[in-house]
Amino acid sequence: MAKAAADGKATFYLAFKDEEMVGFAQTIQHDADTAELDRIIVFPQHAGKGIGTMLLAEVIEDQKQRGTKSIVANAGKEENHARRFYEKNRFKKIKETTIDAPWGKKLALVTYQLCLKP
Q1: What are the structural domains of the chain?
Q2: Looking at CB atoms within 10 Å, which of 20, 75, 102, 111 has the fewest?
Q3: In the chain, where does DSSP find H-type helix?
């Protein structure tokens, strides 16, 4: 996280409950028009309580304020929970790819995009 923050392109969004961090999201600004939702994490003991949706709403509002036109996000093709989350939140599937993962295997990804209205 520190390395991502140091380059100035990453933004972190933190979720707290009773002064305890319960989740976070991270975006990476690719250019003036596009941000990538690099990760959205809700700690397991707080899952299913709408925290991810609240984090996503904060990301969307902040990116709109910055003038970003679209947010992209990747999910593993087999990560059904993540894919349902993006689809439920108006992201549209734009492509499927296979990449070489750092741990030496192929990884099938689905890329989603949310177009923001100014």
Answers
A1: 2-115 (3.40.630.30)
A2: 102
A3: 2-6, 51-66, 80-88
